[in-house]
Design a protein that fits this description.
The chain is mostly helical. Helix content is 70%, strand content 0%.
Length: 312
């Protein structure tokens, strides 16, 4: 599939945003006092909602008529895209209410509101994943690893962003040796394992899909003539093929920058007592994660093949 820049920006930005909201909930509920400073909470909510809003706006660039995007919300009974839009909108009220409660020092409501925001964020990520996982015509996406991948990538990237902001604003929320720090490292390693299994799965699936299985018949078939005599939309969009040289470069970048480097930085930071060093390590982890997840998202689309390409 042709990797559209707008979709890559959408999945990357919203992944960071929803993941950040989930980690705010985790940090708040794991805090020894059950409270976090109001400026810290407001900053994290603001950054998360800005990232989500930017991602949603970026997704509109992919539409032929962005002004009609609101109509998609009415098809929630049958469309995962519509469900994603509905839950994306539903995230805003409790997130804003959470910021309002923090500002007014209604601390007793914060844990419940944060859990509500986290649940709605996870549902939205799930709906986004199902947009792709529900497509039977693209075997690389039609599997459970796509769904678990979206959830794990959002948790890991949002966690790295949360850790970076915590080190800058309120290090006590992510202290060295804290449960949430090791939980974040665990999520990153799970995301890496999921990606490796996913790559093995699509390699196995791509070899098993044939012209016969694509249309559900037995025997051997062969087209009498090619569908088109010149390049068309399907060949450019559905039949996009990433160059082998490009794949060899992007794959190690995705693995190293998204998973390995952030994990190493977080592990070193967990044993460091020098705050300047911890901030530097968290910055390296975040920058590396941003670069890596963009490469990973590009590969996610570029490596997927529509079954219609079997006939070209």
């Amino acid at each position: 599939m042709h990797p559209a820049a707008s979709v890559i920006l959408f999945t990357t930005s919203t992944g960071f945003g929803y993941g950040l909201l989930c980690w705010l909930s985790i940090t708040l509920n794991l805090s020894e006092t059950g409270q976090l400073p109001t400026p810290y909470i407001l900053t994290l909510i603001t950054i998360a909602l800005l990232l989500i809003t930017f991602g949603l706006l970026a997704s509109l660039w992919h539409l032929g008529h962005p002004e009609r995007a609101w109509r998609a919300l009415s098809q929630w009974r049958t469309s995962w895209l519509s469900r994603e839009g509905v839950f994306a909108v539903l995230v805003y009220p409790p997130a804003l209410l959470m910021g309002f409660a923090s500002y007014l020092q209604w601390t007793e409501f914060l844990p419940l509101l944060s859990i509500m925001v986290a649940i709605l964020s996870l549902i939205t990520i799930y709906c986004t994943a199902m947009i792709y996982a529900s497509l039977k015509t693209i075997p690389a996406w039609h599997n459970l690893w796509t769904i678990s991948g979206y959830l794990l990538y959002s948790f890991s990237t949002g966690g790295v962003l949360c850790y970076f902001l915590a080190m800058l604003l309120y290090p006590e929320s992510f202290p060295s040796g804290s449960p949430q720090l090791y939980l974040l490292i665990g999520f990153i390693l799970l995301a890496l394992s999921n990606k490796i299994i996913y790559w093995k799965y699509i390699q196995r699936t791509s070899n098993s899909t044939t012209k016969e299985t694509a249309i559900g018949i037995k025997g051997n078939i062969s087209p009498l003539d090619p569908p088109h005599s010149s390049a068309n939309y399907l060949m450019k969009e559905m039949g996009f093929q990433i160059a082998r040289k490009q794949a060899h470069i992007l794959t190690p970048i995705a693995v190293l920058a998204t998973y390995i480097i952030p994990c190493i930085c977080l592990l070193i930071a967990s044993f460091s007592s020098l705050q300047v060093m911890i901030i530097l390590l968290s910055t390296i982890a975040l920058v590396s994660c941003v670069i890596g997840i963009i490469a990973e998202r590009y590969l996610f689309f570029a490596e997927a093949k529509h079954v219609v390409t079997l006939y070209y």
